[in-house]
Amino acid sequence: MAINTLWVLLGTALVFFMQAGFAMVETGFTRAKNAGNIIMKNLMDFASGSIVYWLIGFGIMYGETELINGFMGSIKTVSGADSDWTSLIFQTVFCATAATIVSGAMAERTKFKSYLAYSVIISAVVYPISGHWIWGGGWLSVFGTADGWFSGLSSYGFHDYAGSTAVHMVGGVSAFIGAKILGPRIGKYSKDGKSRAIPGHSLTLGALGVFILWFGWFGFNSGSSLAIEGLESNVSRVFVTTNIAAAVATVTVMIITWIKYKKPDVSMTLNGALAGLVAITAGCATVTVTGAAIIGLISAFVVVFGIEFIDKVLKIDDPVGAIGVHGLCGAVGTILVGMFAYFDPYTNMDVLTVNNGMGLLYGGGVGQLVTQLTGVLAVAVWVGLTMTVAFLLIKKFMGLRVSLHEETVGLDIEEHGIASSYADFMPVPGISVSVNGKAEIDEAVPVTLKTENTPSASDMKISKIQIICKQNKFEALKDAMFEIGITGMTVTNVLGCGIQRGKPEYYRGVELETNLMPKVQTEIVVCKVPVKTVIETAKKVLYTGHIGDGKIFVYDVENAVKVRTGEEGYDALQDVE
Fold first, then answer.
1. Cβ atoms of 175 and 324 closer than 8 Å
2. Looking at residue 176, what DSSP letter applies?
3. Quick one: CA dihedral 137, 141, 146, 150, positive or negative?
4. Which among 51, 92, 48, 47 is positioned nearest to 71, based on CA atoms?
5. What is the pLDDT of residues 297-323, one digit of tens each?
């Protein structure tokens, strides 16, 4: 099939944008102290993978054996056309997708240099070899046909239109092996093996990532047609099947979690969308819209119960659910091609392939189903064995996991030297004027010396009142404090719980052990305004009679100093010049 360059390059751009989606999903589903590390890994697995795939991987995948071809520009495509950089860049972004899937499953405890080593291995060898089997003219591409093993089993060979197995299951199996060898995060499992929830810090980022991935998937699947002229109806159907599978999976996961956990689980539902997208990728050009909907429905159950099985039974810690989404749903979606294939994926005709080796449910027999099962098992074994060896070698010679201290304080500070990827940690320099080469420094504001009758810190009682309340009550509290003469306060958003621990909450089906609720902590230091007045006013404003109204704490303060003037005690708390 001739390649339509502009069409494929458009698909390439959309698939590349999926890197941003993966970065946002993984960042949102993990803790803030590791956000910068996640971003760096998603950036570098694409950058380093692009280089090694250009130098080594593409040649392995499509039959070029000379490394020098990458430099001389004589890379060949599977069709045998002359220098085709279109195929190179299209396959590069697919390779990067397979590599980046592992980042989320191994998040929050993997050495950065070791992750780079993994990315190079999968991009140079692991993905290209199984990719050659499927898309590069290898044994799986002709399995069951007249030109391959078990002739007569299938008319099309192993069919994976856009990479449910070639891309997603390769990444998912690698993630499974890596997370297993790496071990769970600190505190993930109790001494008796009970799974503990470790919620991500931003569902907003996670949702943004899912929408980006959903958008990019239209290029992922439809771009795999490699052309559009004469295939308009097929490509349009690919758009529809891709969307329907994702939509059905999303709605189904929402319903499952609503019934199972009594509330619709946000993060699991987001993963449900990705599960549908992954599952439909293999058969998006061969199934009907109804078939796509059923595949989406099946993938929803696979991802919910698959993630729970991996977490609670296998005790493998996967912070983002990558193994379930990409590994399990990639395998299941590929196998289901043997059940639901209806159209010939290589022509522009909507031809029912009855008695032509496709879909069991449409009279095609078991041949294609057996072929699909064979391909999934073969790739799983290949990736499982090679990545086990790779991760064990990395662990032995480079070390795979960060230290206890590094994991505790976060990889942002330890691996990359940033206090937090969210904090404004850069100091703001003061403004000074240079006169004759010397910086002028503002002098302190003159203060009238105290007289014998002026109260001092030692004879005026100073108290700090700390008020913890619901977020929706803060504005009323603030206004009430200003009305009684409070001129200053310090306000912080915090998480906390009282003795009641609130009502049970769940994160991907795992009950949160300590139910920390968002609260506002307000600190007020008073001297002139009576403490009793502040307490009574706060109680009046905050009271609802329900659990969670808040707490008020009162502390003695030894002294207070106003930095600008040097005043102390009572004077430091007054707002009078």
1. no
2. H
3. positive
4. 51
5. 999 999 999 999 999 999 999 999 999
